Amino acid sequence: MAPRINTRDRIAQASLELFNAQGERSVTTNHIAAHLGISPGNLYYHYRNKQAIIAELFAAYERHVDQFLRVPEGRALTVDDKLYYLEALLAAMWHYRFLHRDLEHLLDSDPELAANYRSFAQRALLNAKAIYRGFVEAGILLMDETQLDALTLNAWIILTSWVRYLCTTREFSGDLSEAQLRRGLYQVLALESGHIAPAAREAVAAVFDRLYVPLEE
Fold it and tell me: What is any Pfam family matched here (predicted)?
């Protein structure tokens, strides 16, 4: 028998579902309480306001990314690792897509969250660059240090702005689709296309094929 989820965790899970489906700005604490069939007072007993719920969801997202965005110990990176990192990023972005949907608004609304996000961004960029350097050391990418800096930053810009790109260039009656997010990962992979070592091109091409999703007209 599965353990019963406590009320605090139920509130966080329901909030994540509603934020993802409708956008954080469209969801109030009253909406969350009604969705769960609890009183607003019960919700406020666990979270003082909506920002506290968002902060907890961001902390969970941050912990999740920190777990996989790292260089493996004791072995060289492979092309399979490239697919692993991109698929893991897709899963994280999809599960917490509301964070990317209106990031500037969320950070403007909560200075403490903004400070935490800056620390997370700096750490993620360092870890991502170490991973890219690992692909260079493994003979999969051919790049110098300046190119590594540029690739890491460009990849970050695409990943963190892709959801907003979709929302501002297409009409949505509801939620985004996972396929639309997957195309963002293809765009990141495309940044490397001119730097792939000849011996790795065939294997990397298979990763390209797996991530490719046509852009909707």
Answer: TetR_N
